[in-house]
């Protein structure tokens, strides 16, 4: 099981890094082209928009066909989505790229979570497995922005800024293919034919449970905080004249902190309950967001990024468990 889980996590790192790198590079290119902060915010929201409408159908599809077919679709869509702005770096192509790579990443997460949930039996193992799986996006949120930032700066310095962005997008397009190579060796689980729900149950019926409503609300709020940080850092960095490498490093510091806290969650979970960790994370996030715009330089922003990564990185595994 450990080798299979390692392949799943490593493949997820590469595909998610494609989206993470684009999520850093596309707002910088849009700002450079003269688009407003509102337009950039709308652009970044498109990375999540596809998942809003496809999450439930994607879950049902993976239940029917298993792991490998959804993964192949996700890799194809992510690769194509990253190539679009590499070939035509217009705002419209940036929007299409955000929709494609965001949807591909969402489909991948659903397929992997379903597969991992069938790898283990005991509840303690399930919490541990989801904790390790959540480390993948944390590392990819470091890998993607840092690689994209370095290419934008260095390739752009040699061949011009637009070509620097194009080089970054082309590199991001290659990362999902590396993930596919790792996933090919993962064995498929036998498909279980579930009985139809009694009484015509629907997905929206879950919202009738008060605790599920609370859990979804907290998840939405904290996930939004993660995305707000991804939006604010390029805006502030662009206004203050930071290079793409510095902006990518700030996002990478956040991601490394999130990965570190997730690696230690198995220890925290033995001493604290889920609701205690989530409540502390919510309070700390509010304080740090209030301080972040007041930070005078990149080093101070880096400290805030690390602290935000520590508190926000702890939330998703606790929500899943």
Description of the structure:
With 321 residues, the protein is mostly helical. 82% of the residues lie in helices and 0% in strands. The protein has 13 helices and no strands. Helix 1 runs antiparallel to helix 9 (244-263) and helix 3 packs antiparallel against helix 7.
Give the helix tally: 13
Poorly predicted regions: none
Structural class of the secondary elements? mainly alpha
- Average pLDDT confidence is 82
Largest sheet: none
Descriptive terms for the model:
single chain; mainly alpha; about 325 residues; 13 helices
SSE layout:
Blueprint: H1 2-32, H2 37-65, H3 68-87, H4 91-117, H5 123-133, H6 135-159, H7 161-183, H8 210-239, H9 244-263, H10 265-271, H11 274-291, H12 298-313, H13 315-320
Helix pairs in contact: 1-2, 1-3, 1-4, 1-6, 1-7, 1-8, 1-9, 2-4, 3-4, 3-7, 4-5, 6-7, 6-9, 8-9, 9-12, 11-12
Outline of this structure?
With 321 residues, the chain is mainly alpha-helical. It has helices spanning 2-32, 37-65, 68-87, 91-117, 123-133, 135-159, 161-183, 210-239, 244-263, 265-271, 274-291, 298-313, 315-320. The protein is globular.
């Amino acid at each position: 099981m450990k080798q299979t889980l390692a392949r799943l996590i490593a493949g997820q790192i590469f595909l998610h890094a494609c989206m993470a790198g684009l999520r850093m590079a596309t707002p910088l290119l849009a700002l450079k082209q003269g688009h407003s902060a509102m337009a950039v915010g709308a652009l970044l929201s498109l990375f999540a928009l596809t998942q809003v409408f496809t999450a439930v159908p994607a879950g049902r599809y993976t239940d029917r066909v298993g792991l490998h077919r959804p993964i192949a679709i996700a890799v194809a869509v992510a690769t194509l989505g990253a190539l679009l702005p590499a070939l035509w770096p217009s705002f419209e192509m940036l929007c299409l790229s955000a929709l494609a790579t965001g949807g591909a990443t969402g489909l991948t997460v659903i397929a992997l979570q379903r597969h991992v949930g069938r790898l283990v039996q005991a509840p303690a193992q399930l919490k541990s497995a989801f904790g390790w799986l959540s480390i993948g996006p944390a590392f990819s949120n470091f890998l993607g922005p840092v690689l994209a930032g370095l290419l934008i700066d260095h390739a752009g310095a040699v061949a011009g800024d637009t070509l620097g962005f194009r080089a970054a997008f082309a590199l991001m397009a290659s990362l999902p293919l590396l993930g596919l190579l790792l996933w090919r060796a993962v064995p498929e689980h036998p498909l279980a034919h579930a009985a139809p729900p009694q009484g015509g149950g629907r997905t929206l019926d879950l919202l009738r449970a008060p605790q599920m409503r609370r859990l979804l609300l907290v998840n939405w709020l904290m996930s939004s905080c993660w995305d707000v940080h991804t939006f604010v850092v390029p805006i502030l960095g662009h206004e203050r004249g930071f290079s793409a490498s510095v902006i990518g490093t700030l996002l990478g510091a956040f991601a490394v902190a999130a990965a570190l806290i997730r690696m230690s969650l198995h220890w925290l979970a033995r001493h604290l309950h889920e609701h205690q960790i989530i409540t502390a994370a919510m309070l700390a996030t509010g304080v740090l967001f209030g301080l972040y715009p007041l930070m005078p330089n990149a080093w101070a922003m880096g400290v805030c990024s690390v602290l935000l990564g520590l508190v926000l990185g702890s939330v998703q595994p606790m929500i899943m468990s």
